[in-house]
Every structure is written in C-alpha cells, then in structure tokens.
C-alpha cells in the first residue's frame, strides 16, 4: 500500500475521509497527508502529525513512545465528543494492517441511503442528510 493509498488515515488513527474539514464544499482539507496548502488550519499545526513525520513513522502505533500523552489526550477528546477512539484504530492498524482499517472505516462511514460520506463529527451524511445513530458501547 502506498502513502497515497493511505492518505485517508491520519497518523493518529483518525479517518480523514469522514472528517468535517475534508467534507467541506468550500476549500476541503486534503487530509493529514495532503499538501500543506490543502490542509485545514488545525491539521497544519497538529503536533501528533508533526511528531510522526519527525520520527519517520506512518502511524503512531509504529512508534516506541505509543501511546504518547498528546495521543491519549486526543483519544479522550474523541471518545467524549464523538464516541470514537483514534487510539484503538491505531492499535487495529498495527494488528490487522492499514488496508484493513481503511476498508473498515470506509464501510463504517458510507451512508446506507445514498452512498455518500457520513461525517464522523456530526454523524450526518454530506449528501442526503441521513443521521447515523450513535454506536452502543
């Protein structure tokens, strides 16, 4: 799998393909692995992505410091706000491979009504407005 194939999965485990910034109609973000001018402001200054580049790892799970304090903080935030765990996604990528995780995430965030992309932040389809119910723990 090339980096281009992996562009929808951020080093931290967030699926960029379903991120609100990626789904924007005006100036959509190119994802964490995109060119700087294509990224959302928050993505351009992301400490986790910068750390992954400096340590020359594709995913944080490949790093000897995994899981680091910034990644744990991101995970707590995503669990609380969105019911998602980038940390668990990163562990799964390490165990099953990035291709498996990307396929799983693409299925997870595809709208069952129209085939559009459901935003992971508000759980709403970017095309038809379908709302994905929260997952049960």
TrEMBL record:
Q: Which species is this record about?
A: Zongyangia hominis
What name is this protein filed under? Answer: DUF3795 domain-containing protein
């Amino acid at each position: 799998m090339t980096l281009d194939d992996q562009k929808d999965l951020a080093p931290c485990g967030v699926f960029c393909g379903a991120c609100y910034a990626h789904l924007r109609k005006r100036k959509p973000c190119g994802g964490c692995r995109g060119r700087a001018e294509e990224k959302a402001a928050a993505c351009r200054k992301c400490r986790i992505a910068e750390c992954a580049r400096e340590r020359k790892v594709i995913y944080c799970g490949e790093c000897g410091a995994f899981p680091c304090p910034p990644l744990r903080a991101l995970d707590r935030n995503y669990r609380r706000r969105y019911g998602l765990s980038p940390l668990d996604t990163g562990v799964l990528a390490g165990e099953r491979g990035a291709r498996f995780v990307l396929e799983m995430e693409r299925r997870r965030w595809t709208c069952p009504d129209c085939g559009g992309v459901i935003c992971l932040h508000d759980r709403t389809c970017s095309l038809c407005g379908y709302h994905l119910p929260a997952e049960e723990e």
